[in-house]
Design goal:
4-stranded antiparallel beta sheet
Amino acid sequence: ILQFPNPLIKWEQSRQSDIGIDLTLAKSFTVTADYFVRSAEDMILAQPLPLTAGGLSNPFINAGRMENKGWEVSLNYKKKFKDVGFDITGMLSDVRNRVTSLAGNPFLDGGSVRTQEGQSFNSYFGYRSLGYFQDSNQIKAAPVQFGTPFSSTNAAVGPKPGDVRYADISGPDGKPDGKIDAYDRTFIGNAFPRYEYSINFNLSYKNFDLNIFGQGVGKRDNYLSGTGAIPFNSTDFAASLLEIHKNYWTPSNPDATFPRLLPSGSGGNNYVTSSQWIRSASYFRIKNLNVGYRLPAIIINAVKVSSARIYISASNVFTFTKTWDGFDPEINNQNGEFYPLMKTFTAGLNVNF
């Protein structure tokens, strides 16, 4: 891909101000708290160019500033009762992300995302969905969608029951104008998580030990699927069928996850970037689980080693989420290219000589 060069580009710069406290209570309870403001200057972003520039890829420029502001609290409890030992650490953070300057650019577009002053970086930008058309009367009363009005005589023209309804938000003069077009796009979600939290739990009993690490996020949006992962028509099922794709609109299934199946080879406006495909990506995941047993001294001395430990571990064991029904809520689906995290299980023996 040919791309315009930029000999003036330079590294981003970041600055951070932080105030915090560290407390130890009763020798076994520790509290760490921080409030911070972190700013990034001269962000490296792609500068949109008009088609008259020759069709080359947009050059990267240093364009503006971004600010992360928030707090983080970490709590640790560590105690031993005879043969039983506890070591538990919990963390919670609340961070707000906001673009404060774009160096004179009104916004920087990235297809399904837009970076604009006053908004979070790379926020989802598209049409606001009102659900599905359920019958022809709804279609006749609705704004004209993308320049194609409803046709009762031509089945291939205009929206049909089971297609996505879009909200008429604006027009050239800033007011609803009775048609759906690019003026009706708006901010529909934020992929930057507001809350992040984790817990690290360690338990020991004589020669046994257990470690559980879990982490999650709250108030984060994600795009349900990218190009090619949603069945546009009946023939696409052969290449990209997922269980959730079976839940498509029919007159007897009006609240389906996906719109109607389109005739083979047809297009349609059901899969433009819209809030129809935005889901909450809040989740909690058991990231790591490890169980071990240190061999007793009688065995260690017999085989003449310093120590030995048998263990079983697992990664990405359980994920808890209420609204996400795609591959993985942890992965950013903005460009539609991703590979889901896999569960892994391992058993082993650590020996020190």
